[in-house]
Amino acid sequence: MKDEIKWGDFDKMRPTQIEEIKKDYPIAYLPWGAIEYHGRHNPTGLDTHKTAHLCSLLAKEVGGLVFPPISLAANLIKSYPGVDFPNHSIEFSEKLIQLICEEYFEQLAEQNFKIVVLLSGHAGEPHLQILRDVARDFNNKYPNKYFWALAEFDVIPDHLLVANHSALGETSLQLYFEPETVDLHSLPKDREISLEIDAVSGEDPRSSTAEHGELIVNSFIKNATEKLGGIIKNYI
Ligand SMILES: [Zn+2]
């Protein structure tokens, strides 16, 4: 029989509760999102909600402590070349993103977490690469610990999800997690969807469904759990 999995939200627990979980599951989940314009059909915090939900589901499956989401990102649609969406995003510098990530990782290492899972809901570049690079540096610095920085699409097959902005994939996930925040009717019915007008990069979001979102989520949880199982064998 499988032991009871222990997990919780780090910021909702008292110290003894945290230590009770951490002694068996020294795994920290860092959901990393953004405040970013996601077209008229999706909320600005889509990346944050997506990663927060996925981290909680993963922790439920694997065990560990979920940190509050970080809604700080660089390389937003606000500064995509050739598009004009100056509003509804809050963008930070690449340097600051790197620094925050380093300071989080350093303190998580000091607090004896052995595995840190940073799930980035935002895939702008080099934002995502910066997080991956910091993880690589910390893996070199702490060879007995493992820092895993990923985006959800890293572990999901392409036929279900590829990197996208407010397209079929992200919109389906948002419909699955928080359907009341999505308004598909705000998308045009009489023309092609475009990046320039609709802030959509990727497949047509008009066919998004919660059911498709659920398939993506299930695939993520299955594959990320498997991968984490291997990491746990080596590091815990
Ligand atoms: Zn997004």
TrEMBL record:
InterPro entries: Creatininase-like_sf, Creatininase/forma_Hydrolase. GO terms for molecular function: hydrolase activity, acting on carbon-nitrogen (but not peptide) bonds, in linear amides; metal ion binding. Pfam families: Creatininase. It comes from the Bacteria. Keywords: Hydrolase, Metal-binding, Zinc. The keyword Cytoplasm does not apply. One of its GO terms (biological process) is riboflavin biosynthetic process. Its cofactor is Zn(2+). This is Creatininase family protein. The lineage of its organism: Bacteria, Pseudomonadati, Bacteroidota, Flavobacteriia, Flavobacteriales.
